[in-house]
Amino acid sequence: MKVVIPGGTGQVGTVLRRALGGAGHEVVVLTRNPRGDREVRWDGETLGPWADEVIDGSDVVVNLAGRSVSCRYTPANLQEMMDSRVRSAEVVGEAIAGAKRPPRVWLQMSTATIYAHRYDAPNDEVTGVIGGDEEGVPRYWAYSVEIAKAWERAQEKAETPSTRKVALRSAMVMSPDRGGVFDVLLWLARLGLGGPVAGGGQYVSWIHDRDFVRAVEFLAERDDLEGPVNLAAPGPLPQRAFMRALRAAWGVPVGLPATKWMAELGALAIRSDTELLLKSRRVVPGRLTQAGFSFEYSEWSEAAADLAGRVRHGRSGTPIPA
């Protein structure tokens, strides 16, 4: 099948492109800076030749476009996140609506951040609580939820009657690739900084890269599934336990704890934001599980061991010392 991935040059796009291309599918990436023969230029904002060239006649569109969340959550950066996500979704919808042979399915990236910061119960697609009204959290966290809602709304409003639409409410995709979230967390653990943050009770939701790819393939083929779908392993766990399992996978015995203010200093140093560390994302894959999807990696300890092994022996071709 022909798969088009707008915004497919980041970590998640790299994971999808590698796996789907390796499985024999034709994969085309839309990017502002094309460098290969299967990369096509677009600006993420306006229709152009790319619409007729790659969207028309494709089978699946997986839209990953949007400004990276790996940044400081300043008002300017938050606005850029909003604008880039909403406008790219709108223009993908316009391209699909104008296609003579539209794709059969449009998988639109969304985020598990849409759910409320909570500890008491997991969030699935039916009973989950949408965030934005929580007490005792920074006010700007609500804007992250508004971004997610606007992102999904842009897809919902697109007039694409011949194309099934799915919003991928994805947790953090864990892969061994350089610069990805697992790479950063492993780096912290190897430095001895992989302990509990602010007590470590906040839940971490995640999905192994192979299960992410398998879920995308599953959703592409299941004509009965549309709307929001959580892409998260069924075993979210508190941050203290999450990092303990990661340290065990690499063989690091100790991880120093960090307070909230220490986490803020660390986030500032790596130009990130503490929401990524402190928000409790307790998300479970209700619709995927009900549809019969089976996870290869449902427990974090097994996933962490696999990812650490791939880093040691596969990422650079040379084993890395502990």
Automatic annotation (TrEMBL):
<feature type="domain" description="NAD-dependent epimerase/dehydratase">
    <location>
        <begin position="3"/>
        <end position="224"/>
    </location>
</feature>
<comment type="similarity">
    <text>Belongs to the NAD(P)-dependent epimerase/dehydratase family. SDR39U1 subfamily.</text>
</comment>
<dbReference type="Pfam" id="PF08338">
    <property type="entry name" value="DUF1731"/>
</dbReference>
<feature type="domain" description="DUF1731">
    <location>
        <begin position="271"/>
        <end position="307"/>
    </location>
</feature>
<protein>
    <submittedName>
        <fullName>TIGR01777 family protein</fullName>
    </submittedName>
</protein>
<dbReference type="InterPro" id="IPR010099">
    <property type="entry name" value="SDR39U1"/>
</dbReference>
<dbReference type="Pfam" id="PF01370">
    <property type="entry name" value="Epimerase"/>
</dbReference>
<dbReference type="InterPro" id="IPR036291">
    <property type="entry name" value="NAD(P)-bd_dom_sf"/>
</dbReference>
<dbReference type="InterPro" id="IPR013549">
    <property type="entry name" value="DUF1731"/>
</dbReference>
<dbReference type="InterPro" id="IPR001509">
    <property type="entry name" value="Epimerase_deHydtase"/>
</dbReference>
